[in-house]
Amino acid sequence: MFTVSINAACIQMEVEHCSKTDNITKALSMAEKAVSSGADLIVLPEVFSTGFCYEGISDLAEEAPFPTISKFIGFSKIKECAVIGSIIEAQFQEGIPVFYNMCFCVEHGKLAGIYRKCHLFRQEKNYFAAGSSMHPLFLKSYGLNIGLEICYELRFPEVARKLVLEGADLLVTVAQFPNPRKHIWRTLALARSIENQIPHIACNMVGSSPASSFFGGSIIIDAAGDVLVEADGDECIIMHAIDTENTNKVRRDIPVYSDRRAELY
């Protein structure tokens, strides 16, 4: 693995239910602060622009070319950075809307790629269609492959392992992980990093929605499973440099990948 160093930031924000304009304004403002502090890569929580606004999903969901993503494409061009987040996407099939929980990644004024959540949790199944593919996205400006997963998918070790085996250099989880599951969130975030020997940015929200409250606890972890920085339960920005040379060292010291018995599993 070649060496890449990048300053990564997670924006742990309170998402106002169904308030797209206010949420986007806040996200852009906090992203501006992150860039001013030296961030190259900015991660936002799951459906940060709307929350799970099921009652307004038809009005708030976006079709291509995605106005919210376009704002962050413009931001990333001006600020020469990358941004990852998740919004509600609408597609029309024979005039009937189909909605997805869609994660996007933009860099330096371009859309690097999207990922549609494949594992839906409880009520999501009543409103969203499930994605059907997952592959790392390449950030050309940084020479970095990003493995994306969304919230509930943190519970599926197969997701992270597949992404890493396909070349992901960094795992990013965007989430609305609710109370009272803080110990589960932290344990799984660490486990996905340790078992795959990969740095991990897990970005959660704070505040509340009509159905849940959220503890925050966003965390950036290195490839050895060491916590680089961790948030509490307040709205904040956490940031830390991620250096893939550390990943190389971890994998040399403990050669998990060469010791795997793939023929058995």
From TrEMBL:
Residues 6-244 form the CN hydrolase domain. GO terms for molecular function: hydrolase activity. SUPFAM superfamilies: Carbon-nitrogen hydrolase. Keywords: Hydrolase. The keyword Metal-binding does not apply. Pfam families: CN_hydrolase (PF00795). PANTHER family: DEAMINATED GLUTATHIONE AMIDASE, NITRILASE-RELATED. This is Putative amidohydrolase. It comes from Methanomethylovorans hollandica (strain DSM 15978 / NBRC 107637 / DMS1). The lineage of its organism: Archaea, Methanobacteriati, Methanobacteriota, Stenosarchaea group, Methanomicrobia.
